[in-house]
Amino acid sequence: MNEVIVLEAEKLLKRIEKLGRFESKYTVFPYKEAANIVGGLNSLVESLPDVRNVNSRGELVDSELKRRLVAEASRIEQRLSGRHYDFDTVIDIHGIPRKDIEELRPWLELNRDDAFESIERLFKTNDVESYELQLPLDVPSIRRRAQENAEDDIQRYHTTLGKMLKQLTEVGDFLRDIHAVPTEQDRSYFSPLTNTLALGIPNIYYLNEDGSLGIRERELIRLYGHEGMGHGLNHMLSKSDGLPYFLRKSSAVNESTLESVAQFYERVIFGDVKDSPETQRKLDIGHKFDGIYQDAQDGNRLSDYEARLGQYAISLLGNKDLDYDTRVRLLSEVTLDPNFPLGFVEYHKDSFDTQGNPKYSLVSELRYCAQPVKRALEEFEKRGVSYEGEGRSLIDKAFLKGFWTPDGFIDNARLTAEGK
What we know:
The strands form two sheets. The protein has a three-stranded mixed β-sheet. A two-stranded antiparallel ribbon has the order 4-5. With 420 residues, the protein is mainly alpha-helical. It has helices at 3-26, 31-47, 57-81, 87-93, 98-102, 104-125, 140-168, 201-204, 217-239, 245-248, 255-274, 277-282, 289-317, 324-332, 340-347, 360-363, 372-382, 389-400, 406-417; strands at residues 179-183, 189-191, 196-200, 205-207, 213-215. The chain is built from 19 helices and five strands. The chain has two domains: 1-83; 95-420, no CATH class. α2 (31-47) runs antiparallel to α3 (57-81), α11 runs antiparallel to α13 (289-317) and α14 packs antiparallel against α15. 65% of the residues lie in helices and 5% in strands.
């Protein structure tokens, strides 16, 4: 690892951040400065070695820094070029492994029957007696009730789950610096600028037919795992000492890794609560947690299937060799809902530029299909490190400290497992 190059990279990345802040304020882009930055990035790339097999921390930093600089330069060059954003360009900008896109269809074929079984099991084991109505937050009395409930419930869950995680893993200590609050936005989020975990009231609460408020405990736990344990702790640990600047700042090229990590922790947290009757008691869900847990397992299977089906559908739109009817046929072979294939393809018939490339925003959704966490866990398992006890803390720190590309994330896991 060349400290001089790492410091030069830090200067260039800070200049890139300045571009973003400038454009945010003035709504114009400093093209000449951007071109100068690209030149600097390319020069640094040439000075870094090509590392084929990573065997040390220094080689890990060199290889990951090179990937980061190449990605940043390509992203800015694409904007300066004025060219169309084709499918491959968007995939590269977001660092989405093509292997994970290619594995979508085989995964769907393998898990389709299980998804159908989950639907039937949910239907047979749940007697849904009434509708869960969307909260009309424009009604002052309902809005006030929802806000009051959310403030109490979210703080109680944050405190209780935080104590549980502190006992399970060393990274749990970092939750104390995260502020958990309700938000009226539909989408929950973690703000790294203010260390705020904002959980969406519309996601967690609903209105019963008799006008009373209901709470979706399963969704509250899931969101805490995804946004709090996943994104929140990822940002908190990455701010801590010991990492070069480029690993402390997230970018488009490592978004796919961040989402894979968050998806992992939204599943982990249910197992943690399941193994902690004390936590269930404090959250007042002990009497019904078995049902919550089983719903979560079946719900996860279905949400996984629906998500990957949607991602597979996007990948078909990105294949210019496929016509309308072929896309519909391929989706029909793996769909759960027979109306989905035609509906999806028809809905997106105008989601292309003049060169036949699907919209950038659509293709970028494929970042959610990346599986670096799965492969990183395999690296730990090969070396006898399991996700429990001291092994859990080791894995948690490897997963949550630093913003890595998928390849760098896996290399880091392997070196960590090897004690390097």
